[in-house]
Amino acid sequence: MSGVDENQTGITNGFLAGNELNELVEIYMGDLVGDAVYERFGNEFPILVKFIDAADYLSIQVHPDDELAAKRNIGYGKSEMWYIIDADPGSELISGFSRKVDRQTYLDHLKNKSLRDILNFEKVSKGDVFYMPAGRVHALGPGIFLAEIQQTSDTTYRIYDWDRVDAEGKSRDLHVEEALDAIDFNVYDDYKSKYEARKNGSVNLVTSPYFTTNLIQLDQALAKDYTEIDSFVIYVCVEGAVTIVHSGETELQVSISQGEALLIPAAIDRVDLVPTTASKILEVYIV
User: What would you report as the CA-atom Rg of the chain, rounded to the nearest whole angstrom?
Assistant: First the structure.
């Protein structure tokens, strides 16, 4: 689900077929995204949802925060979170540094191709959650399938790509200088988000200024009331299948299964979630 220019989600059926997501925001404004959200973000849909299936190490990268992005006139920064849908045994990812370093130490390791010596590697399992605030160096390892929720931004600073080259012997562009002012060089006690799973209710995974994400595990129908939330809601199915039912002037019924996402307009404040099997969905909105 994307409002990024040149890569927007398109509408494929109904009377709005042929429109893109940001065009719907422009037409329906607060009815679609919520009045407060529209006032804050205008005609750009503010959340980007991706599924990533990593077969190899992805490049080590970092994203700017809002302040640096504004300074560089590149829109918004990018904070994101990862929900691990599945992972091979022993799979790992990179999140931040394993010890506090300064710029020069970091640059020395980058130059000597020993960056991994100062990075924090995390073993991952199904259901793990990692919040990646802007400024945190990160990378995915092979054997990981995940859902990514993030700010709408197309800015990524690639700092190391494992010395890979293409068939013509060319390496991808790196953004070493651009990344320097974006990187958070601090070390943290815990990089994995903790939560206690429970059935048939919303359990918070991440709360940030950019998005709130909850996990809903279902083995029976659940009624959801969003009258207190001035925001759209995105459901991201990460396991099983769920039918979302809205009973209003017009009754709506839509089913999603693993790998699909559904946007609930802010104007719809009550829905019923009906699982067809034991299921898990991410619930995303902005407060």
Answer: 20
- Per DSSP bridges, beta strands 241-246 and 212-218 are unpaired
Short-list 65, 133, 127, 59, CA closest to 93: 59
Q: Which residues does the chain have with pLDDT short of 70? A: none
Predicted local confidence at residue 89, as pLDDT: 97
**Amino acid code (one letter) for 127:** G
CA atoms within 13 A on the CB side of 29: 5
Check if the beta carbon of residue 139 is closer than 8 Å to that of residue 202.
Answer: no
The structural domains of the chain, ordered by start, are: 46-180 (2.60.120.10), 202-285 (2.60.120.10)
pLDDT of res. 248: 77
N-to-C CA span, the chain: 19
* pLDDT (0 to 100) of residue 284: 98
